[in-house]
Design a protein that fits this description.
Blueprint (H helix, E strand, L loop, with lengths): L1 E7 H11 L8 E10 L3 E11 L7 E3 L2 E3 L6 H10 L2 E7 L9 H18 L6 E5 L5 E6 L5 E3 L2 E5 L3 E5 L12 H7 L1 H9 L1 E5 L5 H11 L3 E5 L17 H5 L4 H12 L4 E5 L6 H8 L3 E4 L4 H13 L4 E3 L4
Parallel strand pairs: 1-3, 1-10, 6-7, 12-13, 12-15, 13-14, 15-16
Antiparallel strand pairs: 2-3, 2-6, 4-5, 7-8, 8-9, 10-11
């Protein structure tokens, strides 16, 4: 199962401001993260950024930063209290886009010690920020090995993603037209995304159809309703046979996407968003489209998106 890390734009900016103070020396900070554990993905969600004060570092050079581990003892206590994961971060002012031998030595001492402090199976780890704000990282798995974070992303006015494997699949012919307009990089990004669509009727149905035909990697569809005759002119690919057979909307749309056959994985949930199953499935996604028209549904989606740092694209009724 892949492990990812998500930060808000404000957290990213706070981290960058501390890690690159302008003196050309490395700096360090601790990120305390909440967790979303699922069957498809384990997401680390940044809650707090705690800079390691420069004056408490025993050494700061362009290639190394050293600080006493007792500096973070209060943070370990705080993380243990809340059930959070600990991520050590530092900068590479020289732009080196990989962990150095010094990094390896430090992480092999600190991260296992952090794990032993908690005596749990949480994914504690280490990340590095480059001068352009890009971040890469790794976590310590249950076997004691360091494994790359599948991706690190920042949620704000812009959506930033950095992948452990920067190169996706070959560009298929079916996206030739929109790669000409938006570039191959856009398709590679879309192909890696996991997107939830909550509400699969008049708004959700065309959104789902377009996302699938753009080549989105994974779609999570949430709607507990069956297709009724009054829906037939609003749900793409629905038929009167579906009405007569009392088929679920998510089932009909899933079948249609699978018929298209361009590789989008579909997870249909014929259930209410208020169920733990639906919340867990949506929380593992990269972003969510809210195509519901009830106040309660919008409230829950807004709460879920805020807590799990999910970009939330909402349907607005005119």
């Amino acid at each position: 199962m892949e492990v990812t890390l998500t930060l808000t734009e404000d957290q990213h900016e706070e981290l960058k401001a501390h890690l690159f103070p302008g003196d050309g020396y490395e700096a360090s900070a601790i990120i305390l993260c909440g967790r979303c554990t699922g069957d498809r993905r384990h997401r680390l969600v940044a809650r707090e950024v705690h800079p390691i004060p420069y004056k408490q570092c025993s050494e700061r050079t362009p290639l190394r930063v050293t600080w006493p581990t007792d500096v973070i003892t209060p943070l370990l206590d705080r993380a243990e209290k809340h059930g959070w994961t600990v991520i050590k971060s530092h900068s590479h002012p020289n732009g080196r886009a990989r962990f150095s031998k010094t990094d390896d030595e430090g992480d092999r001492k600190l991260i296992p010690a952090v794990r032993d402090w908690f005596d749990d199976d949480f994914f504690h780890g280490s990340v590095v920020m480059l001068p352009n704000g890009e971040i890469f990282g790794r976590y310590l798995d249950g076997k004691g090995d360091f494994v790359p974070l599948a991706h690190i992303n920042v949620v704000g006015d812009d959506l930033l993603f950095w992948y452990a494997d920067p190169h996706g699949d070959n560009i298929p012919d079916f996206v030739a037209s929109h790669t000409q307009a938006f570039g191959e990089g856009t398709f590679e990004r879309i192909r890696r995304l996991s997107i939830a669509v909550v509400g699969c009727s008049g708004t959700g149905s065309p959104v789902i159809e377009q996302l699938a035909r753009l080549g989105v990697g994974e779609l999570v569809l949430v709607d507990e309703d069956i297709i009724e005759e009054r829906n037939i002119n609003r749900i793409l690919n629905a038929t009167m046979n579906d009405v007569q057979d009392s088929r679920y909307k998510v089932g009909v749309l899933t079948e249609a996407i699978n018929r298209i056959g361009i590789g989008t994985r579909v997870i249909p949930l014929a259930t209410n968003l208020w169920t733990p199953q639906a919340v867990r499935a949506v929380a593992q996604c990269d972003l969510v489209f809210g195509c519901v028209d009830t106040i309660d549904g919008r409230f829950l989606l807004n709460t879920l998106a805020t807590y799990y740092i999910l970009p939330y694209i909402m349907r607005i009724k005119s």
